[in-house]
Amino acid sequence: MTHHVILGAGPAGVIAAETIRRHAPLDTITLVGDEPEPSYSRMAIPYLLMGSIDESGTYLRKSPAHFADLNINVLAARVISVQAAIKKVVFEGGESIVFDTLLVATGSHPVHPPIPGIDSAGVHTCWTLADARAIMVLAKPGARVLQLGAGFIGCIIMEALSARGVKLSVVEMGDRMVPRMMGPTAGGMIRDWVDAKGVEVLTSTRVESIAAGAPLNVRLSNGRTMQADLVISAAGVRPAIGFLENSGLTCLLGVLTDEHLQTNVPGIYAAGDCCEAFDKVSGKAVVSAIQPNAAEQARVAALNMVAFARGQALTAELKGVTQINVLDTLGLISTSFGDWQGAPGGEHVELTDKAQGRHLSLQFMDDVLVGCNSVGWTENVGVMRGLVEGQVKLGAWKDRLVNDPTQLMQAYLASAQGQGSWTGAQDERRR
Fold first, then answer.
1. Beta 368-375 vs 332-338: how paired, if at all?
2. How far lies 123's CA from each of 112, 194, 216, in Å?
3. pTM (2 decimals)?
4. 123-235, what's its fold?
5. Is the predicted pLDDT of residue 182 greater than 70, yes or no?
6. What is d(CA 384, CA 275) in angstroms, rounded to the nearest whole number?
7. Peptide bond preceding 405 in cis form (omega within 30 of 0)
8. pLDDT for the residue numbered 130
9. What is the pLDDT at residue 346?
10. Rounded CA separation 302/287 (Å)
C-alpha cells in the first residue's frame, strides 16, 4: 500500500492531503503537525486578537471528524530529520515512519532577533494560537505595547493590537514601513497614516536590549528607553527547514523545487512558505509566502505524488508564482505586485498625491508591466495584478501608461482582449 507522508498541517499540507485522497482513494496518507491544535490558519490570528472570531474560527476545516472521515491519519509530532536515501522521517523522541512519497509543507517560523532579554517573560511572537492566547492576556485596553517590526506581518499584527485599545509603539530597523514591499515614498505615506491614527512608529531604529520585569524596560538605538507591559517580536519569518540539514535535499532560502514541485530527490516534494519555486515575472526561484500560492503548489505537488507512486509521468505543472501583497493598515490599502523595484534596463513611472493619500508606481520591461505598488489606489487592484501575473503585452499602451498611469483599466481591456487574459479585468468590473 502506497504511503504518502505530509510534513506540515497548515493550508498547504491540508490541501495536499485532500487532493491525494480525491485521486488515490485507497492510498495511506499521514498528515504531520507539530502543534497540539486542529489545523488552523495563521492568517486568521489577527482576527482572533480583534475579537472578530473565536479559536474555532481559525480552523481550516470545521468538522472535528473531517480527516477521520477522509481516512487521513493525523499525527502530532516534531520532525527532527528526514533521511531521503532510505525514505524515513525521524521524530523527536526517536519514533520514525517510512514513506513512498513525501511532501515538505512545514511553512515558516518567526525570526528570533539576537537581542539581550528577547526571551524575557512578556515578550512574545505572534505566530501560533498559543502566542495569541498569551498576547490576549497582556494586551488589555491601555496596556503599553512595543512591537518590533513594521513589515507585512507586523502591519497586520499592528492592526489587531490597535483594535484592542492598547498604547502601541512600533520599532522598525528599515528607513520606512514595509520596506520589502514599498519604496521610500509609499512606505513613508503609510507611516504618516499610522502616526495620524495614534500609533507611534520609529523607523531606522533597533531594539538593543530588553530588561526583564513588570514593566519591561526596552533600550532603543536612538538612546531612548521605553517601558512596556508587552513586547511583540514581529521581525519577519524564515522557511522552517532546519530539520532538512544533511537530508540530501537541496535547500537555498527554501526547499528548491522544479515545475512539478519535486525536489532534487524523486518522490519528495515541497509546497508553501518553505518552498522555493519559479517566479514567472523575475525568472528566478523565490519563496512566495502567501496562501494562494501555497494552495496551488500543494495541489500540483499532490497530483504529482499520486502519479509518481503509480509510476506515471509527472504532468501537473506550476505555471509560476507571482509576488502578490495586498495590505490593509488601519484602513489604508496598499499593494505590491511582481518586481515592484523594477528590473535593470526597464522603465518606471510614478504618480503621488500626498494630500489625497494616493501613490502609484509602475515598472515596465519593454511593453510588459513587471511590477507595481500603490497606496490608497483601490480601484485598480485587480487590473494591476492581472497585468503583472498575465505578463500582458501592452504594445502602444505602455507609452500611454508612462504618460498617464491612471489609464490602467483602459490599457488592460484594450491589451488583454486578444491575449486571453481577462480574469483580472472581469474581477475588477465585479468590484
1. antiparallel
2. 11, 23, 9
3. 0.89
4. FAD/NAD(P)-binding domain (3.50.50)
5. yes
6. 25
7. no
8. 96
9. 92
10. 19
Q: At what angle do helices 408-416 and 423-430 cross, to 10 degrees?
A: 140
Q: Tell me the per-residue pLDDT of 250-269, one tens digit each, with 9 for 90 and over.
A: 999 999 999 999 999 999 99
Q: Which residue blocks in 65-183 are alpha helix, DSSP H? A: 66-69, 129-138, 152-163
Q: Are 3-109+238-309 and 331-430 in the same CATH fold?
A: no
Question: Quick one: which H or E segment has residue 4?
Answer: strand 3-7
Instruction: Copy the grid coordinates of residue 297.
Output: 503548489
Burial class from Cβ neighbours inside 10 Å (0-12, 13-18, 19+) for residue 419 reads exposed
Q: 3-109+238-309, which class in CATH?
A: alpha beta
Residue-wise pLDDT for 292-348, tens only, equals 889 999 999 999 999 999 999 999 999 877 778 899 999 999 999 988 988 889 999
Alpha carbon distance 188, 221 (integer Å): 20
Confidence at residue 431, expressed as pLDDT on a 0 to 100 scale: 39
Report whether pLDDT(192) > 90.
yes
**How many residues are listed for the chain in this entry?**
431
Q: Which numeric CATH code is attached to 331-430?
A: 3.30.390.30
